[in-house]
Write a structure and sequence with these properties.
This protein has 278 residues and is of the alpha+beta class. Helix content is 33%, strand content 11%. It has helices at residues 3-47, 100-114, 129-140, 201-204, 232-246; strands at 61-63, 72-73, 97-99, 118-124, 176-183, 250-252, 259-262. It has a five-stranded mixed β-sheet with strand order 2-4-5-7-6, with helices on one face. A two-stranded antiparallel sheet has the order 1-3. The protein starts with a helix and ends in a 16-residue tail after the last strand.
C-alpha cells in the first residue's frame, strides 16, 4: 500500500475512533442526567410523604399509633369513664392525636421505657376546643352533685378556680398529653375506678396501670406530683415517669402527676377538629 493510501486509512480510523469516543461520552452524560432526575424525583417523594392515614388531619398533626404502635391508648373522654360521666363533645374515637414533633418525642420516651419492661398508657392527647368548653359547662352548672368519685373532697364549682378544669387548654394545640405507665406483660383488662379516686389501689382499681397514688383525673391534693404521704411505690412510679418524660423535653404540671406538655416547639393555635380514627 502506498504511503498516501496508508495516511488516508489512518486518518479515517482516527476519525472513526474519535466519533466512537464522542458517542460514548454523550451516552454516559445522558445516563448521568437520567440518574440525577430519578434521584431528585425520589427525594421529592420522600419529602412530601406523610404517615398512612394522617392526610385527613390538619398539617402538623399525626396519630401517635402511627409513630409508636407500642404506646397503649385508653382515651377517657371518648367514653363514659371520666369525671363528666359521658363522652365529651368532639370525640368520635378513642385515639391519641398530637403534633408531629410531640408524637416523635413521645415515641422516644416509649423506646427508653420498653427497655425496662414498661409501656406508656395515654389517657388524653389533642383535645378539641369544644371538649374544653364542654368540661367548663359541666363544672359551672348550677345543678347536679357537688362531689363525686373523681373529686371526693373538692367542690365541683371550685374545680376551675383550683386549676383542675381549664378555660383554655394546651391540649387543644396538640402539645399536651395525659398518661401513666403499665407493665409490658400486663395484658389483662383494667379494673375501672370503684368509688373514691384517692382510695388505695386495691380498693379503687388499678385502671390497667401502675399505682401512682390516685386515679387519673383525680381532683385532689394527693394528685399533686410531689404530694406527701404517698405509698413508696406510687411515689417512685411518679419520679420514674417524670424523669423519662423530661429527658425528651416534656414538662409536668405540678398539680397533676399525669399531665405533661412538650416544650420542643412553639405552642401554635388551639384547634377544634374532631378526634377520629383512621
Amino acid at each position: 500500500m502506498s504511503r498516501p493510501a496508508r495516511e488516508t486509512r489512518w486518518r479515517r480510523e482516527g476519525r472513526d475512533k474519535a466519533d466512537s469516543t464522542f458517542r460514548e461520552r454523550r451516552l454516559t452524560q445522558r445516563r448521568s442526567r437520567i440518574r440525577l432526575q430519578e434521584a431528585l424525583l425520589a427525594s421529592a417523594l420522600v419529602s412530601v410523604a406523610v404517615p398512612s392515614g394522617a392526610s385527613d388531619l390538619p398539617d402538623g398533626f399525626v396519630r401517635v399509633k402511627e409513630v409508636s404502635p407500642a404506646i397503649r391508648e385508653d382515651i377517657r373522654y371518648a367514653g363514659a369513664d371520666n369525671f363528666v360521666g359521658r363522652p365529651l363533645s368532639g370525640y368520635e374515637a378513642g385515639v391519641c392525636i398530637l403534633r408531629t414533633e410531640a408524637a416523635r418525642a413521645l415515641a422516644r420516651v416509649q423506646e427508653s421505657l420498653a427497655a425496662k419492661g414498661l409501656v406508656l398508657v395515654v389517657y388524653d392527647c389533642y383535645r378539641p376546643k369544644r371538649a374544653v368548653a364542654d368540661m367548663l359547662r359541666w363544672a359551672q352548672a348550677s345543678s347536679g352533685p357537688r362531689f363525686g368519685p373523681f373529686h371526693p373532697t373538692t367542690d365541683r364549682r371550685s374545680l376551675v378556680s383550683q386549676g383542675y378544669v381549664a378555660v383554655r387548654s394546651l391540649h387543644s394545640t396538640g402539645l399536651a398529653v395525659d398518661l401513666g405507665l403499665a407493665r409490658l406483660d400486663a395484658l389483662r383488662a383494667p379494673v375501672r375506678l370503684r368509688g373514691d379516686c384517692t382510695a388505695p389501689v386495691e380498693i379503687r382499681g388499678d385502671e390497667g396501670a401502675l399505682d401512682f397514688g390516685t386515679a387519673f383525673d383525680c381532683f385532689d391534693r394527693r394528685s399533686s406530683t410531689y404530694a406527701r404521704g404517698l405509698p413508696t411505690e406510687a411515689a417512685a412510679n411518679r419520679r420514674q415517669l417524670i424523669k423519662a418524660m423530661a429527658e425528651q423535653g416534656f414538662a409536668n404540671y405540678p398539680r397533676e402527676w399525669w399531665h405533661f406538655s412538650y416544650g420542643g416547639s412553639g405552642r401554635g393555635p388551639a384547634q377544634d377538629f374532631t378526634v377520629v380514627g383512621r
